[in-house]
Amino acid sequence: MLSACDGMTDDMLPSGTDERPEVDTSIMGTQVGQQSPDFAMFDTLGNSRGLYAELDVPHDGVVLYFNMWCPICDSHASHMRANVIPLFPDVSFFLVDYVSGTISVSRDAQLANGYGDIETLVDTGQVVFDMYGASMGTTVVIGNDRVVRMNEDYKDGVKLTETLQALP
Question: Which residue, of 24, 28, 34, 165, has the greatest Cβ tally within 10 A?
Answer without folding.
Answer: 34
